[in-house]
Fold this sequence. Notes:
Layout: E1 29-35, E2 45-51, H1 58-72, E3 77-83, H2 106-114, E4 122-125, H3 136-144, E5 150-160, E6 171-181, E7 185-195, E8 198-203, E9 208-214, E10 217-221, E11 229-233, E12 237-246, E13 260-268, E14 271-279
Parallel strand pairs: 2-3
Antiparallel strand pairs: 1-12, 2-4, 5-6, 6-12, 7-10, 7-11, 7-13, 8-9, 13-14
Amino acid sequence: MKRIYGHLLLAGIVTIGGMLMTSCDEVSLDDRYILNEDVKSERSILLEDFTGQNCVNCPEAHEVIEQLQEQFGADKVIAVSIHSGVFGISVSKTNFDKNVVGLMTDEGNKICNKYNINSFPMGVIDMGSPMVHSLWPSAVRSELQKETDLSIDLAVEYAADAKDSENGYYGTIKTKATISSSSDRAVNVQFWVIEDGIVAIQRSLSSVITDYVHNNVFRAQVFEDMSGKPLNIQAGISQEIEGEIANRWSDTEHWNVNNLSIVAIVSDGTGVLQAKEVKVIDNGEEPAEDPKEE
């Protein structure tokens, strides 16, 4: 069994002009507690990017994400591209033999419907109100300036199936978040699986890009309830919550474990309180190409 633990003000304002008018227009809770009297943390924000492979304006929003992460850091701006809605291509349409890869999931559509989003691209920062991508830079900067006393330490373990230890197509992703705060809080904790480096079709304003590289793609949520698992935090006491999900390698989904990350989200009724992203396998290398079946 293999186990590995992974531990912009923009230069210019992005303009989209008339494009804004278009609709393109059983997991267990660990019982252990760790005393931590002085909790201080730097804030990270969650940017949910609602997108689709047939959305011609969406590549511009992807560029905004790259610029934001370059300026503030990918550890501070945690982006998740949720393929959904009328411009998404469902994973059920995938045919690897014909080079057709869909990235929209039922879970992603449920998240999209939660915000009543019907125009794309659209973004939600820390579970706030949906906004067009020209507003993301100022909103991200404002959200990052907010103070927080909540921190997440996230550990991820990948246990490959004993019969497939070489390729890593099959195995289990195990997550453990250690959460601390200097305030008593009732929160929810969710883990999302995201993937980088997926080569698949994407429409743009000028062309159909057959080898577009999709990053930050939402793949699945670990806990069935959309909000996640409830957790009562006591001030100064660290608490742990664990989850696990099987790596998917099927006729419709090929999760490349080398390109996967786990995003831990702690939220309450006001929105996201803190987020953290950790690679499933941190080998210090750029995302690998999707392995092919022999």
